[in-house]
Amino acid sequence: MKKLNQAQKIEYSFLKILTGSDLSQRKLPVMEAKSVNSGPVVWLTACVHGDELGGIVIIQEIFKLLKKKPLLKGTVYAFPLMNPIGFETASRHINISEEDLNRAFPGDKNGSLAERIAEKIFTSITKTNPTVVLDLHNDWSQTVPYVLIDPAPAFKNKEIYEKVKSFVKKTGLIMVEEPAKLVEEQDLNKSLTYSLVQKNIPAVTMELGESYVVNEKNVEIGVKSVLNILSELGMFEKTEDFSYPVAEPALGKILKYSSDPASSTSGIVRFVVKAGDIVKKGQPIAKVYNAFGKTMETINALQDCVILGLSDTSVAFPGTPVMALGIIQ
Ligand SMILES: [Zn+2]
Predict the structure, then answer these.
(1) Which regions of 101-199 does DSSP assign to beta strands (E)?
(2) 324 alpha carbon – ligand 1 mean position (Å)
(3) pTM of the prediction?
């Protein structure tokens, strides 16, 4: 039997993004692990939101693993730190210009600061003709890890939509699709993954636990999930198939993201469910109390759903979302 040649080249480099007022060069770190055997191209991207740090470590751990156990074929590229300006002050945005880098794609060479950085990132990724792009994010402090699919209208090509769904199933994470109404409300059509799928490049967003700090448990989950994809593509030798535990009515289903119902009163929120719980339609999920401790409102689930995460603040006003839910369809 012919033995696969496991030679692989690992390279770390930089992509220049701007020259600072002190004439320092600002750069994005780029990582590349390339097998001598041609094959799929996978991009891992992290920290587009400067306060979402877990993804950086997941990428570092993947490359540590690849040094020990080389790729069987193909190439893994990574941008571990897409927003160094936000990272340095632990803030979501590029704080010089107060822009959300993940609402600036596909970018513009002559546009705003975020659009110029986005253009460099986007061009670097698309010119490699990727098989799939995994964009690593973090969200609330009390949350389950899950993978997000862009809303159906993002996909001009239904084949890419199906491809993305099959990648999402392989992540082993809870699967959630964003509703179309969020596209306009949150400028989602300018996110990295939305812009990629518009160009017929499969891309998914992985939400892997809390922002601000590195949670080792979530790093482990993220690494296993990325390895699932690399194994599926035949790029990495399979050891175990990872899947995050989720109970039966939600098992294997693509859930629909929702933050309804919002609070309709003001006060202090007490959650009566935990992230990861499966709740039935009509079941209480939170209560709002006034300053004297009197119950103002009980918030009930509108449909059967999985609790994805609880809001990072327990302050309620009329219209404040209190948690994120994955509706079981
Ligand atoms: Zn994010």
Answers:
(1) 132-139, 142-143, 146-149, 174-177
(2) 14
(3) 0.95
Please give the distance, rounded to the nearest whole angstrom, from the Cα atom of residue 48 to the centre of ligand 1. Answer: 7
CA of 169 to the centre of ligand 1 (A): 21
CA of 49 to the centre of ligand 1 (A): 5
Q: How far is the CA of 36 from the centre of ligand 1 (A)?
A: 34
Q: Are 307 and 273 in contact (CB under 8 A)?
A: yes
- First-to-final CA distance of the chain: 48
CA of 10 to the centre of ligand 1 (A): 27
Least confident window among 133-147, 181-195, 197-211, 276-290? 181-195
* Domains with residue ranges and CATH for the chain: 8-232 (3.40.630.10), 248-327 (2.40.50.100)
Say which DSSP state 109 is in.
T
Which tens digits make up the pLDDT trace of 227-270?
A: 999 999 999 997 788 999 888 888 889 999 999 999 999 999 99
